[in-house]
Design goal:
By secondary structure, the chain is an alpha/beta fold. It is built from twelve helices and six strands.
């Protein structure tokens, strides 16, 4: 439904709904929230360009009981590039409250390293299209290694997506990627799994 929502200008409403419901759920389950490392909330390009959503998010974050260091907002690389100035301002204001930001699908766009210096991200998620084949492709391996090295130099944590087997875990461990995400690590579970 995401492409349809984007086409009809509804993504800001979708993002607002997800944001509000996630905060509400975490507030209702403080014990789970305390044990949680981070809860990631995706934001679309349309939301990065919406002053009204930014205002609503800031107001909600200022009155929540959820520890703000537990929240991480993920922005896709394409969305960040399309709205560079607005994205930077939004990220700065929300980071000042204690939340962190992650750049999702890093490497999928054309200007990755160029604008990485311009936006204050805490983490970058290396695009899974490079990770899943790095055991068979020296080019993909080198690409993942390069991203990891640049991120370390900038004091940015790295997350590898699409970790699907033990060989990839070994390769990512060797190049010191900080976090791994994928079916080999854990499959997605519904919210109810954690709260029953």
């Amino acid at each position: 439904f995401i492409p349809v929502a984007e086409r009809h200008g509804l993504m800001t409403r979708v993002d607002r709904w997800v944001f509000e419901h996630t905060i509400d759920l975490l507030e209702r389950h403080p014990k789970h929230t305390l044990n949680l490392d981070k809860c990631a909330i995706n934001l679309s390009g349309a939301s990065l360009n919406s002053p009204s959503l930014l205002t609503a998010m800031l107001e909600r974050l200022q009155r929540t009981t959820v520890p703000l260091k537990k929240l991480c907002f993920e922005i896709t690389e394409t969305a960040a590039v399309m709205n560079l100035d607005t994205a930077g301002k939004m990220i700065d204001k929300i980071r000042m409250l204690g939340c962190c930001f992650s750049l999702d699908d890093f490497g999928a766009g054309m200007s990755s390293f160029g604008y990485l210096k311009k936006l204050p991200f805490d983490k970058i998620k290396i695009d899974g299209s490079f990770v899943k084949n790095m055991g068979n492709s020296i080019v993909d391996y080198t690409f993942v290694e390069s991203i990891t090295n640049v991120a370390k130099a900038m004091n940015i944590k790295t997350v590898a997506e699409f970790v699907e087997n033990e060989r990839i875990v070994e390769l990512l461990t060797d190049i010191e990627v900080d976090y791994l995400q994928g079916y080999h690590i854990e499959k997605p579970k519904p919210w109810s799994f954690y709260f029953d």
